[in-house]
Amino acid sequence: MTLTTHAAEDAPATTSGRRAARSSLHLRKVLVPIGLGVLLLVGVGLSASVAYHNRLGVTNVDGISYMGIAREYAHGWFGDAVNAYWSPMVSWLMAPIIAVGAGPQTAFAVVNTLAVAVVLGIGGWLVWSQNHRTVPAVLFMVTAIPALMSAVSVQTPDLLVVAWMFGFLWSLRWADQALHGSRRSRIASGIVLGAVAAIGYFVKLFLLPVALGSVVLWLLLRVWSARRRREPVRHWWPVPVAAVVAFAVVIAPWVGALTVKYGEVTLGSSLSVNVGSKFDDAGRSTDWPWLPVPPNEHATTANEDFTPSVFEKGVQDNPDPDAVPPVSRPQTEPTVTKSSSLVARGTYYVEQRLLAFPYYLQKISTFAPFAAPIALLFAAALVIGVVRFRRYAFTCIVAASTLVYFIGYGMITSSSSGGGNARYYWPLFYLTAMIGALMLPAVWRLVRRRGVIRTVVACVAIAVVPVASYTQNWFGSPAPFYPSVNRTDPLQVTGPVDVPPLVALADQMKSSGALPAGSSIIGTNSRSLASIAFLTGTRAFGRSGQGYTYHSEAMLKVYADEGIRYFVQFDPASAPARDYSMAGKVVGTFGADIACTGDSSSDAAQPCRIQVIRLDG
């Protein structure tokens, strides 16, 4: 007689259940990376399509300098390419693409598409690897994709800045995890952290203080957390030391090249130029030359190097002050200048930053309406103790880096520019989206214990984040709960490639022979002229707001002295005809819908008449 117990009866079922669970877990480990990989390919593919459809245009005057420098690297003109103002990484990446025969605009599109892959790949993996939950990673990637598609065509290194931020967060997380490992792992992680920080320095000089501030804040958080748990911290020193050494070794050749070219040791000039102007209420109108010239024979515009020792070599004195529009000269004597006391300049700086702060917040909300709510909710969770550094270390590291970046640009933005360009603050979109995704499991656990209504409300609130990104960045419609957007037209993902009016105008000028390649030119709209010069292979002199004209004998003499042979006059199509007999001969008249009456980035396009005058001087 055999007795069978309940345990014996349940044993096969239990074993079978464990096998099924292991099989399900194994299948999940295979399917989840594949699913995220497919989403990565979709995001990169859509962004590449947008970049392809917009590759012909010149979207930014800064981009002309980056592409011009890349072209100099590609042709081996290294002495001209080394530049203290424009950070070199984006030009370095474009140079080999240009060298194999691609156009500069195409090269920029390729580099930005690679940056998209880095943001989605590293960002999605960082979110998934923190809790091995699929939904948070998908939430982050779906939110990021429309914004990346909207940004991929902009010819500046700002998308590369976003990509670097995620690489930096990865290296910072590795360093954080290595603090309690072996000395070898701490040194290795420190070397990687320093090397990544050096790459950030090459991407944009502003990222150097961002990296430094983020590392210092991370170490302070770690020390504070360790002291609360009575843990030793002395053995952590190899990480920051190795990071500093690696950073110095990586940047040394570049700093050496800058030192040789400019005759003094420098990390770069962009911070000193841009931050220095924030202490002086006279503004650039009195600081900068009336007629700056391209810094070398291969440069398209004088903007290729704003380093004072180079930029100020242009003509300093205006030969005909009466020809300069009143808006380009201060109406009253400045109260604070570079010669004022440190206290006066400091007080002025603080006052201006306080005036600029509302514009700064408004500018951020135009492309990331969810950034402020996520940041405030996370800060509140920290204060009340819902979020603790010990459990949410990486999320706190992301938040610390976001705070450093936010404060950093807040210190240099200005009210006169309405908070500056929105692209400077792009990382805040992706970083706050990552914070929200990282906190999603905790939020979900909390609301599920609080009833159906709170769960529904939480789902709606979470869904707002990707919906806002999609509607605002893809369709150009107002994001949820925010009344304005940067763009009003949908992204062009498919269909024919349109030729921008300015590109078509440049093609007409080239084919007609009105502007021979290699010529030196000047005109009434420096921004449009810079794009025309880049597209026609000519060299544009001057800068915006200086009142260049063809009917001043004093100005014409300066043009002749500088070798400027062509003057380009921009007028509305309906404007009366002009008499150019004093200056020279009209060699080409063209029409295009471009910005022509003003000389700023906010000018709207309108039907314009563009005339090229060959100067007789």
Automatic annotation (TrEMBL):
The UniProt record lists the keyword Transport: no
InterPro entries assigned to the protein according to its UniProt record, in alphabetical order: LipidA_mod_glycosyltrf_83
Keyword Isomerase: no
Domain of life: Bacteria
Subcellular location: Cell membrane
TM spans (from-to): 30-52, 109-128, 134-152, 187-220, 241-260, 367-387, 392-412, 424-444, 451-470
Positions of region (Disordered): 317-336
Coiled coil feature spans: none
Protein name, as recorded: Glycosyltransferase RgtA/B/C/D-like domain-containing protein
Organism, scientific name: Curtobacterium luteum
